[in-house]
């Protein structure tokens, strides 16, 4: 007899990030700056103090306090996760019961639907408008008319790079009965956060990550920020030692260097603006670029019917970007990386 996987596992397509080695990597929305170059000593001092034979602090107290201090939050309202990815999975699996309805939007970060599926939730997907924007009124009405238990989306959005303004998010949170999970992975590149609203609205959870503007993707650290009831429930439902001690120590040390992180964040925003302007200019010459969206993130989103061809050709030239159907998503890089990308991109466009 051979063991048989259940139907759900048989149908799963594994998430396959780019794993090849390319001189220019602009495919994963990471920070183009390695924070350890400047804070290497601070990080090694913190890591040296880790007791390797002991389990990590299950409450991740020190790093949660440093995170709360960074954003001016109550540390009790911040729960650390092994990347915000773990928190997406944890919240969907514990706050909803099997068969409950969760609303996702599309296009959006694919892991929401993935974890919804794994947890046997009913996923109602609302397609965004033609301009890829979100009609908040329509979404709220849908939630209230369809016995929806939770809605989850990224703001600003990965992959569209577009943002929903704070007052519209608040309008949504106020007008629906369900849990609203706002993934603010890229919000530090914009500034329309609703983090400060979690005490006011007991159905709001904001997810944050240290993987983007903070340049700590390697550490795997994210936070769920919510009021008392939701925070206590997340803490109760999480696995006890979910964030390892090295991550807790290193990230706590880095988070205490807010001015440096802010400086890098501002530099990344400058880089994205430069990239956006340059590609918008190219779009005037090369009609295969249909649209460059108004990004408020650390990446740009380009609509082109030739996305696959461009992606393949760029890869052959050592430049990795993200290919998504009729779109390309390009992470803002260092000056040098942007320069190489633009040079190769232009050449590829001229060959089409
Ligand atoms: N949310 C969004 C919108 C993302 O784009 C990503 C990373 N691609 C994540 C969450 C995951 O972040 P983390 O590294 O904290 O798991």
Produce the secondary structure layout:
Blueprint: H1 7-11, E1 24-25, H2 35-48, H3 61-71, E2 78-81, H4 83-95, E3 101-106, H5 111-118, E4 122-127, H6 136-145, E5 148-154, H7 166-175, E6 179-183, E7 204-209, E8 222-226, H8 228-237, H9 245-255, H10 258-285, E9 291-292, E10 299-303, H11 307-316, E11 319-320, E12 322-324, E13 327-331, H12 335-351
Summary, kept brief:
This protein is α/β, with parallel strands linked by helices.
What would your notes on this structure say?
With 352 residues, the protein is of the alpha/beta class. The protein folds into two domains: 22-34 and 260-351, Aspartate Aminotransferase, domain 1; 55-256, Aspartate Aminotransferase, domain 2 (3-Layer(aba) Sandwich), CATH 3.40.640. It contains twelve helices and 13 strands. The mean pLDDT is 97. Bound molecules: 4'-deoxy-4'-aminopyridoxal-5'-phosphate. The site of 4'-deoxy-4'-aminopyridoxal-5'-phosphate (PMP) has 13 residues, from helix 4.
Structural class, from secondary structure content?
A: alpha/beta
According to CATH, the homologous superfamily of the largest domain is: Type I PLP-dependent aspartate aminotransferase-like (Major domain)
CATH fold-level topology of the largest domain: Aspartate Aminotransferase, domain 2
Low-confidence parts, pLDDT < 50 over ≥5 residues?
Answer: none
What molecules are bound to this protein?
A: 4'-deoxy-4'-aminopyridoxal-5'-phosphate
| End-to-end CA span | 54 Å
Biggest β-sheet, characterized? 7 strands, mixed
Domain module count: 2
Percent in strands: 15-25%
CATH classification class of the largest domain: Alpha Beta
Kindly state the mean pLDDT as a whole number? 97
Named at the architecture level, the CATH assignment of the largest domain is: 3-Layer(aba) Sandwich
Number of strands: 13
Question: How many helix segments?
Answer: 12
